[in-house]
Design goal:
Helix 4 links the parallel strand 6 and strand 7. The chain has a seven-stranded mixed beta sheet, sandwiched between helices. By secondary structure, the chain is an alpha/beta fold. It is built from five helices and seven strands. The longest helix is centred in the middle third of the chain and has 16 residues.
Length: 200
């Protein structure tokens, strides 16, 4: 790997598009519903236990977090969506902030890849489908990472992945990668996509 992942810092926690960094670094954005495992994926990729905090209350955080990796790359954690208990005002803030990342990001041309997380057992929710449809319509390169694969047996997992890969909504994804923060399954494959799209 051409990155020193130990040299990673949470550079910016943005609650408004005006706080997004004005930087030439490539950006890799992570999207998914609340509690799908974005923080666990970030911590696994960057080999940290608590760089990205796993919230005890899903949907609590409504910020866009920019993790700067070795001064060469931003991993961008978008706020989780679809949490039923979130208030209407919070949902409005989430929508505005996430939309703002894609529409008011001064360096949107630096967005090289969106990593869409989908719970392997649950499959794409209605909100996931909306997001995936939007990514496809916007021609944004994206991969789908199936999280929490350790919750299924090896045989059940293989069958489930085959089922998911046949879904039309996932057909525009460049790749689908089974992942587990517990077993580290898929970690290297996700990094391969990140580095490839970032030209690193």
């Amino acid at each position: 790997m051409k990155l020193n992942i130990q040299n990673t810092v949470l550079r910016i926690t943005a609650g408004h598009p005006s706080q997004f960094p004005n930087s030439p670094l490539p950006q890799i954005a992570l999207a998914g519903r609340s509690n799908v495992g974005k923080s666990s994926l970030i911590n696994t990729l960057l080999e940290r236990k608590a760089l990205a905090r796993v919230s005890s209350e899903p949907g609590k955080t409504i910020t866009v977090n920019f993790y700067e990796v070795d001064q060469k790359l931003f991993i961008v954690d978008l706020p989780g969506y679809g949490y039923a208990k979130r208030s209407a005002s919070d949902k409005k803030r989430w929508s505005a902030l996430t939309d703002g990342y894609f529409t008011q990001n001064k360096n949107i041309d630096k967005l090289k890849l969106v990593i869409q997380l989908v719970d392997c057992k649950v499959g794409p929710t209605a909100d996931d489908v909306t997001m995936l449809d939007w990514l496809r319509a916007s021609n944004l390169p994206h991969i789908v990472v199936y999280t929490k694969t350790d919750k299924l047996s090896k045989t059940a997992l293989q069958k489930r992945i085959e089922e998911l890969n046949q879904l039309e909504v996932l057909s525009s994804a460049i790749a689908t990668i089974p992942f587990s923060a517990t077993t580290k399954l898929g970690k290297n494959e996700v990094w391969k996509e990140i580095l490839s799209h970032s030209n690193l």
